[in-house]
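Render this sequence as a predicted structure.
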Amino acid sequence: MTDKLAVFDFDSTLMDGETLEFFAKEIGIEQKVKAITDRAMRGELDFFESLTERVSFFKGLPVAKVDEICKNLPLMNGAKEVVSGLKQKDYKVVCFSGGFRNATKMFAEILGLDGEFANILHSKDGLLTGQVGGEMMFNNSKGQMLQRLQKLLNVSKENTIAVGDGANDLSMFEYAGKRVGFCAKPIVNENADIIIKDKDLSLILDYIE
């Protein structure tokens, strides 16, 4: 049996929305955060700079509130179906997120993912400090992690699927045989060989043997 790997972005891919925008709604700065997110996802801003700037706005937000928001994030339509469908076809299914483990850890359990890699919101005394660290901080982080996983699992480029919507997902595409732009920004669709425009992840299964 050939080892196969499917890697999904989290925000606006497995989850219907942007985690930081749900946080922003809580403190009334949604438009401010959304404007930065949109520019980063279009590839107009450096991902690291945009991430650290947005996270800084949430200094003082209680971790308990963060976890409560994460628990209630909406799954993307078709998320459960695509994960179970790929697993039936012997894929390992993993999430790479420029977002946060507060969310991805919970969703990995809900969806039955084989792994999740995301950033960590730093906190002290139960409150966010406005700082962030982790494996997914840079424009090229997802591509580097994909290469490491492929080596670890002995999976070829041809047997790898990458699914994403924003510019920080492009580094994965370089190492994937199937590159799926899901309700994606133009810069992503230009580099995708499968383009899904409807908000239904299960449509990906139509392209997988």
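Summary. The chain has one domain: 4-207. Residues 141-153 form the longest helix (13 residues).
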